[in-house]
Amino acid sequence: RGIPREPGAHWTEPGCQSCTCQGGRVLCDTVSCSVPCSHPLPAPAGGCCPTCTGCLHEGVARAEGDVFSPSNGNCTVCVCLAGNVSCFSPECRPESCPNPSAADCCSCNPEKCNFRGRTYAHGARFSLDGDDCTTCVPLGGEVECSFTPCPVLDCPQHQRHLGPGQCCSTCRDPPAPTGCFLDDNGVEFPIGQIWSPGDPCELCICQADGSVSCQRTDCVETCPYPIRIPGQCCPDCSAGCTYMGRIFSNNETFPSALDPCLSCICLVR
């Protein structure tokens, strides 16, 4: 489509097509969505999958933890929890109360509240059906329930995990790198591999975290006429001497190029 893509790049095309660049070819497949809730919100703009960070109930979008009454539910109270909508009705005491009000579900404010077959004192806190992620409080004969707020995660959706008994998802640790990948030449080195990137005086090592650490070698010349060997970083003072563009072996005698009456010798010191 006129846009260059790097090898291994991933992107989403219109129509919820997930594409990747492999070996000069573009491979696309339809995005598959796993929706683990009963009332998900529609996919956000630019997205492909419905989200469980809120609820869609009777055509109305509800925020996470929102408590509301359905349009025809009378005294029924519903709560949006992780994309699921749970509804329940308050249970009133059977005895009559003074000055009843037809507008209230229960016309009195008892000291205790009967809820789903159990009696709770006014202001007591309990969990909904043993769900430790939900806290309920009886107030004035009614039960108010709220969901434990969860922190905002900074990891992508595929790295999030909800463990058994946990109220909030956590971020999985990213997989440990198996090596170092260099974009400039497309070579992947295993962890611990040492190599030279082209300069014989520079050595690089692949670290355990997938990063590359390089260090240069500082050469110290210990003789005035060393031999420079191609592909070797530092000059060699033990292999002979380089004099006036010529190489002489150890203990070799030769006439001086400046004065034919002078005799020179290559000595390793």
TrEMBL record:
PROSITE patterns: VWFC_1, VWFC_2
GO BP: cellular response to virus
InterPro entries associated with the record: vWF_C/EGF_Fibrillin (IPR052080), VWF_dom (IPR001007)
A single Gene Ontology CC term: extracellular region
Main location: secreted
UniProt entry keywords in alphabetical sequence: Glycoprotein, Secreted, Signal
Location of the protein in the cell: Secreted
Domain of life, per lineage: Eukaryota
SUPFAM superfamilies: FnI-like domain
Domain called VWFC: residue spans: 1-53, 53-114, 111-172, 178-238
Record keyword Chaperone present: no
Protein name: VWCE protein
Organism expressing this protein natively: Regulus satrapa (Golden-crowned kinglet)
Lineage, opening ranks: Eukaryota, Metazoa, Chordata, Craniata, Vertebrata
